[in-house]
What does this fold into?
Amino acid sequence: MHTFVDPITRAERVARDKTALVSGEFQFSYGELAARCRRIAGALERDGIAPGERVAVLAANSAQYIELYLAIPAAGRVVVPLNTRHAVPELVYALGDSGARLLITDRKPSALDEVVERVIRLPGEYESYVDGAPETALGVGVTEDTLAGLFYTGGTTGASKGVMLTHRNLIANTYHWMAISHPRPDDRYLVMAPLFHAAGSNSVLATVWFGGLQIAVPTFDPAAVLDMIESEQITSTLGVPTMIAAMAEEQLANPRNTESLRVLAHGGSPVATEVLRRAHRAFPTAELIHLYGATETAPLATALVREQEELEGPRGRSCGQPIPGVDVRAFDPEGNEVATGEVGEVVIRGPNVMRGYWNKAEQTASVLKDGWYWSGDLGHIDDEGFVFLVDRAKDMIVSGGENVYGTEVEEALYRHPAVLEAAVIGIPDEKWGETVHAVVVPREAVEPDTLIAHCRELIAGYKVPRSIELRDEPLPKSGPGKVLKRELREPFWKDRKEQVS
Amino acid sequence: MHTFVDPITRAERVARDKTALVSGEFQFSYGELAARCRRIAGALERDGIAPGERVAVLAANSAQYIELYLAIPAAGRVVVPLNTRHAVPELVYALGDSGARLLITDRKPSALDEVVERVIRLPGEYESYVDGAPETALGVGVTEDTLAGLFYTGGTTGASKGVMLTHRNLIANTYHWMAISHPRPDDRYLVMAPLFHAAGSNSVLATVWFGGLQIAVPTFDPAAVLDMIESEQITSTLGVPTMIAAMAEEQLANPRNTESLRVLAHGGSPVATEVLRRAHRAFPTAELIHLYGATETAPLATALVREQEELEGPRGRSCGQPIPGVDVRAFDPEGNEVATGEVGEVVIRGPNVMRGYWNKAEQTASVLKDGWYWSGDLGHIDDEGFVFLVDRAKDMIVSGGENVYGTEVEEALYRHPAVLEAAVIGIPDEKWGETVHAVVVPREAVEPDTLIAHCRELIAGYKVPRSIELRDEPLPKSGPGKVLKRELREPFWKDRKEQVS
It folds into this structure.
């Protein structure tokens, strides 16, 4: 049986004097980390936060955030990492829904303070809170089936839902991650993906378990991140594709010495092959690992390891194979597996699949069936298990009776050297029902007709955008870096609300 | 929840047409392997071998052995891999104790046939047995707490005991192994350590889970193994130290191209640093990984990764740190942890620790206490968790009131270039109780006095052998390659039986 206590205990024993966590001027060793975790447990106990209660955290990445992420579950309470990009009403909803009485945040007082009984502010007040508390043993009453975290999903579709992940869920997926990412005790891991996403959680646990170093950056800035990779000899990091793309652009324009980088993982949204080619050119020493999953799967389901070796082959456009221990298939709506190569809804099963949505039995039942999590993603799987996502189920464009998957069109657009960002949506059309429309942020001057002619050489005629809008501003994105197609679609569909998801 | 079914299912889906197992002329793909596993399940069902029953296997390594090792537990039965080096009375005991009604063996008819209801002989009769059976679904009624294997321990001390390992035990330890050994889908793994030891089981499961290739060799011959590494482009293997030493000697004398070798793991008994230096010189592309554990811990507890980088430092003589997920400490006889650096009995805790000994509640209770497995090994642990074994508890020599740990004396002997093998025992002495005696197999002509003078430069006077016997024959070894000190001691102690363990 493994719980969050195990990595903390091991690190305290094997790496007591090694630096564990760094953010800015602040840093502490594993010996200090373990003691601080015990004091956090002591503070929760002293203040009457009972085992099983939810404790919300709303903050930028920091060493303190990482220790809270470890200590709250290790103390038998449930961490609720809130999305810093959510609007106040969304945060109020999540706080209320979770029933958290305590919020730890780096934000100034706001309407959120009214929702909870107590707010502790990072860093000053929090430091006093920790320093003054007695040390209490970790893990009392904690089993692997104890709830560890409640992660509120992005909210791009309907009301936000709290994903219930147990110790077992997160630790099973941590082992899944360790099996493919070859962690080492001398890892120096850069925590740049927001900690409020489950995506970052496995590497936090894995790095602690191996006694490696973690450096947290509060906001993502590609130049600052590259400076840090050089100065801190960073070995590993994980980001969403927009981060990887920005880092590659910066490195190609202003090269630093990034030879220490061994692992550069990405996930959270689809990514164009050309972005990865540039990332590989920018960071040739790093193994690219493409990850796919969902908060509901804690989060990893598939991985394309050594992706840089696959980029010129057909599998470079896949998100890899099921990670050993996770079963991934494509089902038709009746729950039957589709034939190899046929598009179906991607379903995921394994010890990493969530217990369910907090207080939402109906929504849970609609996505968890016979142990399978229905991801809402459409994809096909080849004869060696490589998973090719074609689109979000709801993002499919139906034009003249033909299905068009936005990512395929975006892939074609990205292969043009002038394209920096591209998103493809369906817009209403009297004749075809929908037609294919693209929104493009160019890297350099280019005409829409040039891009349309470019696409026509690569994909079937019915998939080629009928119209292209050029923009100077970056595309709107959700927390995890997914382009918010909803926002792009809205102007076109605002009189037809049922189409706007 | 993971069981043995998971790696088989995944491999069938992602590597259906890839070669899974090879031995001699015999080979089959993962698609065939999965189908054969289902037929083995069908055959057991058809023949009335109920779920939970034990099925014994007594055979040299082969593809068929590996599939039985996978299929019997996946079918909900319990595999009992018997030690081929045990004498018939020992095997009769194990068969009777386990209650197995079915034995699958490559041996000619013998007294063993009388103990079980049915014997199926490898390879011919077995092939008919498998070919003729219906395919039955794997995993029916199997949970992670289902017993997967019963491993009879060496029997070097007292009556042989059946170590009960569950699916959870073996799969948790497989993940522990994957976390440190960075398996890959293109692994080509050489199965040369005997499959009847739990030591080989994790790499079997890990390789199947990743869809890699396994080649089994029935008997260990260093020249044949090296030929195979070259011709089959072997990437990874695991052996006992005597195997590693023999391979290194052969490679240094008659070099092959072994550049494909990425991982060369060893475990099962202590090993002299000089043997490892030679192994690194012989196989410079391979990462040496030193493993320590026990059948009772399924079996891995600690690992010294990238051992070749540690050989000249003090930690090169350790067996590494606890593998993430396994807790390893040194306890005094009262169960209190000893101070850092002090010698105590090595104890091990984690999801890999056995359920107990089959039908031996008393012996189970004597080694499993509060979740800790008491290994019987003496060792000390440094401030970063590196474990230094000093000896088997029972192998300690007490001479003139001073404790002498045999391995330390052997380590000194091995540093002399003329020493190929060395074992140190205590022999009776009227004055000192015991004195230190060494049995040495020299690589080249050498005088005992030369070796004694050599030791005197390296270790305290009371540890230096008072007498040295030179032998031409290899030292007697148990199945896993441990030198049978019992046999070396016997002539000296035969009138004092209580001292012969």
User: Anything to note?
Assistant: The longest strand of chain A covers residues 419-429. Confidence is low (pLDDT under 50) at residues 496-501 of chain A.
